[in-house]
């Protein structure tokens, strides 16, 4: 059962213009419903990571605002409500895997829970590596450790930026099957950035397709497939139809992009 209530995320008129003048968001108006999982897909460089960083409170918008359960991201981050697993997991090199994950709970002001920590390590397939330091883990293992670390805080908001990028295909499928049941019962509002359309359909309740930079919403697709989803769902007509719609929207966004059309 959730011990903290599910929260919505609202982005209103959100723009980020970097110091070099690069504008990443068009501005964006998006609301993410409490407890739902949304996949964000879009061409490389369109602004997906920028959007996630703004929602995480790691960056500030040039205009507009993000509210999480009515509060600014920095306030929610300070109370340990937000957890992230990014492409390049920043595990502390001097701590073992178990201690890295336990520390995340401490930083999120959650009581120690060694059983949960070990359970998560097992679920991401790192059983036996509890006392190993990050340097002795492969890139894919470190990514899985980062996912366990994010889930260990029992967050209200979970931000996943290409979390399976360095993970092999079979392990990816296993994680896609095993991980969502960990955050669904908590009512975690989850955003997943991925380059894989199939991963987006498999893991999410909704897919937001973004255009090339500056990102605007090209399509907003519901994924009305029942949970839990076994990998075989990818062979169903409903799954393939949604994947085809997402792919077509991606292509349309690129075709309609003024920047690319001018090249
Ligand atoms: N700190 C920064 N300073 C200047 N430009 C930046 C900065 N961060 C990002 N950008 C630019 O903003 C744009 C969007 O970057 P972002 O990382 O958000 O894209 P993305 O959609 O996540 O890309 P990818 O799918 O390749 O990871 C890119 O053109 C990038 O060069």
TrEMBL record:
It holds the Pfam family ABC_tran. GO terms for molecular function: ATP binding. CDD domains: ABC_NrtD_SsuB_transporters (cd03293). Residues 9-237 form the ABC transporter domain. PROSITE patterns: ABC_TRANSPORTER_1, ABC_TRANSPORTER_2. SUPFAM superfamilies: P-loop containing nucleoside triphosphate hydrolases. Keywords: ATP-binding, Nucleotide-binding, Transport. Belongs to the ABC transporter superfamily. PANTHER family: ALIPHATIC SULFONATES IMPORT ATP-BINDING PROTEIN SSUB, TAURINE IMPORT ATP-BINDING PROTEIN-RELATED. This is ABC transporter ATP-binding protein.
